[in-house]
Write a structure and sequence with these properties.
Blueprint lengths: L1 H108 L3 H105 L1
Length: 218
């Protein structure tokens, strides 16, 4: 009987050691999962930092874009006003030229040389002014066209920059989604491992306590 009791105690002790060993193994597994969680959290922090950098760059780009757009609108408005003013002046000058030209014929037929000379000189001045106005109008138009071309180039560059930022954000979104999924899976696994580790430890401790009681009884 004594031998049987000893064998029984040894068997129970072996079972207790098994559960305690499994409990230790589960603890190491939990620690490994915790390390994985820390890696995923670090990756998540990196994603947040990269997102903040992109957002800051985007804010700077948009501030500059609004400023450049305001300058463009102001320049176009200014050039449009210049063209409108010159056109108005040119119309007045053109009407004046028409009147002077009619007077030339009248003074010529009337043999009024003084008035003819005065009108001719004034007509020459008006023609010069009209020519200068046409040149100024064309110059303002060219400046306006150049401003529009420059704005188109700037907007194309802005679009490409924003497209690149969108691509970066999409990549971050993919990483963030994958990271969140990994965190959820790793977290669930950690919970299961922790429960299993606790269960094995409790069973091992219970068996060890049972052995202690048996030994005390013997």
């Amino acid at each position: 009987m004594k031998i049987i009791s000893i064998i029984g105690v040894v068997a129970i002790l072996a079972v207790a050691c098994f559960f305690l060993f499994r409990g230790c193994q589960q603890s190491k597994a939990v620690q490994s999962i915790q390390d994985s969680l820390n890696v995923e959290r670090a990756l998540n922090d990196t994603i947040k930092i990269e997102k903040a950098v992109i957002a800051k760059a985007n804010d700077s780009i948009m501030v500059k874009s609004h400023s450049d757009s305001a300058k463009f609108v102001s320049k176009i408005d200014s050039l449009s006003k210049v063209v409108a003013t010159l056109r108005g002046q040119f119309k007045v000058t053109k009407d004046s030229i028409g009147t002077l030209y009619s007077n030339l014929k009248t003074y010529y037929l009337g043999h009024d040389t003084v008035a003819l000379y005065r009108t001719y000189s004034e007509l020459q001045t008006q023609l010069t002014d009209a020519n200068n106005m046409l040149f100024a109008i064309q110059l303002a138009r060219d400046s306006s066209d150049n401003a529009r071309d420059t704005e188109i180039v700037r907007l194309n560059g802005l679009i490409k920059t924003l497209e690149a930022q969108i691509s970066e954000l999409q990549a971050l979104l993919v990483s963030c989604t994958a990271n969140a999924s990994n965190l959820a899976k790793t977290g669930d696994l950690a919970i299961k491992k922790a429960k299993a580790s606790g269960l094995f430890a409790k069973i091992g401790m219970g068996i060890a306590a049972l052995i202690a009681v048996l030994l005390l009884i013997k």
